[in-house]
Amino acid sequence: MTDTPGTASPAPAIHRLSPLPSQTELSDDDIAALYLEGAGDPWLRVNFVTSVDGAATHQGLSGGLSNDVDSRVFEILRRLCDVVLVGAGTVRAEGYGAMRVDATSARLRSGAGMTAHPVFAIVSAGLDLDPRSSIFQDAPERPIVLTTELSRPEARDALGEVADVVVCGRERVVAERGLAVLHERGLTRIHCEGGPHLFADLIAARAVDELCLTVSPRLEGGTSSRIATGAAPIVPLGLRLAHTLAGDDTLLLRYVRG
Predict the structure, then answer these.
(1) Tell me, what's the pLDDT at 7?
(2) Strand order across the 164-167 sheet
(3) 3-state class (DSSP) for residue 108
(4) Which positions ≥6 away from 61 have C-beta within 8 Å?
(5) Which is it for the CA torsion 216, 250, 212, 106, positive or negative?
(6) Measured between alpha carbons, how far is 30 from 250 in angstroms, rounded to an integer?
(7) Which residues make beta-bridge pairs with 243?
(8) Whole-angstrom Cα distance, residue 223 to residue 66?
């Protein structure tokens, strides 16, 4: 069956499997309530998708593993946050544009006293970012760029025209300093979308409150990286499974700090 021109495709059905199975499909409001359950303020949520065999990307892109079920929850999670935090490598690889949510999310955010769209915060040690890109030129909220003392002064000046550029370390962006910058601006509900090196830094800093992991029903093989690569904590960070959702053959796992 094909969609009628000019009409939106129906949202993919999502059900809760645990802790108690849902008897009916979940609405967007139901899903949002599940992800708000137990979340504090401040709160750092990290969101990733992976294949069943643990690949973090398909042909080099995490977006290649996503599907309609993942995209539905992805949009809802952006609806709930003050700021979306992403590493510059992921921004470039995944082709990010200006940080905007859809019209429904913008309306609900405004009704809840939030900005219509989240702030976009980018972690970039070397400032290999184009101030003329849509990320900055079309931004509904002024972006924030977290960088290092060793980044090029001319790049800091150029980006400073279109974003708040903040130094958070000498050779690398120190996760704790970057999070403090966001908190100082009242951006306490943080939604991090990667990439793997930023996630590893946040784990090492013991700053992660929640991991939302979509398990895409496919086997990738190959040499794809993990969702976290690099730094590690002295003691592993324990998590507990808060809920499991499913749509078609896709699993949506929500883990919170134990």
Answers:
(1) 46
(2) 15-18, 239-247, 250-257, 210-216, 43-51, 189-192, 83-87, 119-123, 144-147, 164-167
(3) helix
(4) 93, 94
(5) positive
(6) 18
(7) 254
(8) 18
Token duo for residue 47: 């969101």
Q: Which tokens in the block code for residue 184?
A: 């100082």
The 3-state DSSP composition of the chain as helix, strand, coil percent (nearest 5) reads: 30, 25, 50
N-term to C-term CA, the chain: 45
Q: Which residues fall within 8 angstroms of residue 37, CB to CB, at 6 or more apart?
A: 242, 243
Per-residue pLDDT reduced to its tens digit, 228-253: 999 888 889 999 999 999 999 999 99
Element (H, E) at 69: helix 68-79
For the entire predicted model, the pTM comes to: 0.94
* Element housing 135 (H / E): helix 134-137
Report d(CA 110, CA 116) in Å as an integer: 5
Q: How big is the CA angle at 184 (ends 81 and 235), to the nearest 5 degrees?
A: 75
Q: Read off the amino acid at residue 131.
A: P
Between strands 43-51 and 144-147, the pairing is: unpaired
